[in-house]
Predict the structure.
Amino acid sequence: MSAPSQDRLPATEQPHLRLQSGERPLAALYGRNARSVIERGFKVIARQNWAVLVSGFFEPVLYLLAMGLGLGTLVGEVAGPGGAPIAYTAYIAPALLATSAMNGAIYDSTWNVFFKLRFARVYQAMLQTSLGPMDVAIGEIFMALFRGFLYACGFMVVMLVMGLVTSPWAILMVPVALLIAVGFASIGMAVTSYLKSFQQMDVINFVMLPMFLFSATLYPIEVFPEAIQWFIKAMPLWHGVELMRHLAVGFLSAATIGHALYFVAMTVFGVWFTTIRLRALFLR
Amino acid sequence: MQDLQRLAASGRVPAPEVMAARARRWGWWYYVEYWLRTAKAWFQSILIYMVGEPLLYLVALGVGLGTLVDNGVGTVDGVPYLVFVAPALLISTVVMSTGGELTYPVMAGFKWDRLYYGPHATPVTPAQIATGHLIGVLIRFVVQSLIFWAIMVAFDAVPRGVLVSALVIPIGVLSAAAFGALLQAYASTLQDEGYQFAFVQRFVIMPMFLFAGTFFPLSAMPVYLHWVGWISPVWHGTQLARQVTYGAVEPAWLTVVHVLFLLALTVVGVLWARRSYTRRMGS
Amino acid sequence: MPPVTSVVPGDPIVVAEDLTKVYGDNRAVDGISFSISQGESFGLLGPNGAGKSTTMRMIGGTLTRTGGTMRVAGLDPAERGPEVRAHLGVVPQQDNLDEELTVRDNLIVYGRYFGLPHSYLRTKADELIEFAQLTEKAKAKTTALSGGMKRRLTIARALVNEPKLLLLDEPTTGLDPQARHVLWDRLFRLKEVGVTLVVTTHFMDEAEQLCDRLIVIDHGRIMAEGSPRALIREHSTREVVEVRFGAQRNAAVVDQLEDVATRLEVLPDRILVYTDDGEAALEEITGRGLNPITSLVRRSSLEDVFLRLTGRTLVD
């Protein structure tokens, strides 16, 4: 009677380790109801302290005022895209919009996800229902993009008022802010699946801060040796900053497309990465 | 079998009156000891941060951004931009660190982990817990300022001399105490979930970093914004720090104002925090 | 939206075979098999860390198993998690109410996760609030609720999709006695209307009150299975005498008690004397001049079954 133990499947062949079952792709992960997660998000926003939501908009604006107007008096004009000199404020504004899109997306996909997962147990409750991890991920990324959209629109208005919008192409900065956000958010969520404590969250800040300080946001990267420049150019934020800057002044070239494609590729990779990490993130 | 008689009464514990008297005098330090013990667990990651942050800021904002300024107006306040901005970065980063150390951890002490209530059940008083927590954090800032200063020396950003410039360490700690004690006191009054900290971060700490003479002299801003600097511990600390690192010139009375302002804020903050802790834990 | 498969009447609603969960070196669930019939009230009894919650989470497919098979309503939860969970109501060990929403919104939003329409949820939410006895608190935030209220709301929330199978992980841990009895009453009524209950607990009285049948788990393995009464009959005597002689004397008197009892258990603080007639045994003990400091005669419980099977007490 020892036979049964031998029909046990080796662990690697366990059927549930596959991402999809026969009938519908991703049936194990997706309950086709991300909408309900989004509804919850809007319900929370409606009841939330509105000032908290609005205050997120001020951070890039404060940077713009301090660095643009204050520091601008020390710097004067700098070379914009294509080499034409532009005011320092006009130089940093698009970069600040790109940075703000990155920061918001990373915050929402790492800190916020981690908190709701481990402390508020919001996702635990969602996953007790007929939702799958993918519904949760899609719903939460959508909410992050919604907030990003509001902030981007607000920042555009500030730029308009300050006379920093000089090209009709600048309207594309809003969708580009969303593209940057979705790229970072998709990677951020996958990274969160590896995190075990809040302390490790500092590691993320340790990638973000240098990226902000060095990605041609406040000064051109030409001040650095060429090897460092190449390294910076491999990082996503630099592409976001350049893309925004091109659109802001309407200087479009093949490079503009290249920068955009960088983010499209990053998003595709991020979504794939997050999908294969969904179990590790939510079902542990 | 364990000798429970000895466990319950070994005779080696001083009389309750003696323990109480010791705690009356040294209770604050017992809490500092406790804080340092828990901080040991994070020390490694904090250390990387304390070394990494000055390096990043000095390279990016001192050297990188400095290139733009040197091509623009040339020197600022008579010195290269790196020398001008370095002491300000030291003060602001140390003051900004209070935003992490004296907000959520205070909330955790009262509410989430209720860490304060352990010592509260001993002869240590709530006021001593408040002061102990602040001093523990300030010890961290001593290390943080020291590291930043050493890196400034390595960047050759202290033309007034290494020895004199070491005064930025106490100046940094005093600036952090001035803001930190107030922040701690405010945090101890919050009953709610602490979303207020996001406001403090965005509307107090961030503007202090950006508008209080860190990246450009206050005079580069319109006069009607100068008050932001005047009420900000960061500006007062930065102006002191600039004197000791590159010999910024200022009337003597203003220097006295800087020191008095920082001391006064510290005293007010500490007293307020002690009162608030006592009230909250006593009720 | 009706689930794709429906439960066949008469078939077991949960079947687990050789279920295993391994974390690193720790075999949290180590090859357990059980099956649960429809309408039955099934218990998983064991100390903290025995593997009860882990088993529960694998039933809902919110935790990936390492090995074995599992069928819930005929489906594999690991492959068809969302559909399996559409059949379930889950009450986790720690309440996970949405603290950013009101009591009523908690119910509605949770129902939306099942894809239920607003028209249904509006009336359902009110019924559930009544069931949870929270009518006064409907518009309050969940942070304003007491422990017992939160627990009732969590249970009410688990009923929003009218599940056939309710999973309750330590439903009354941390509640005061009165709140526990209120909860047991609610659960009993659900059982009466045919809801299948699966309950984990480390409380004997709870298992005895709520479960028709249970498995005793320790270190991720099944130690025994049966109805509470059958388990007691099989693994214990009818009554127990608990006697205390003080820390120094307990060990010394054991020898003199051997022949009074069917079986003896010596715990650090007391001695358990297993016998079918407790009063008689106690009389015999005092008759021998052993004079315990305290003594108590009680009926055997599942606690004694657990002690017999594992050599350990349940709550330590």
Summary: The mean pLDDT of chain B is 92. Chain B is about 75% helix and 0% strand. Chain B has one domain: 43-282. Chain B touches chain A through 34 residues (CB under 8 Å).
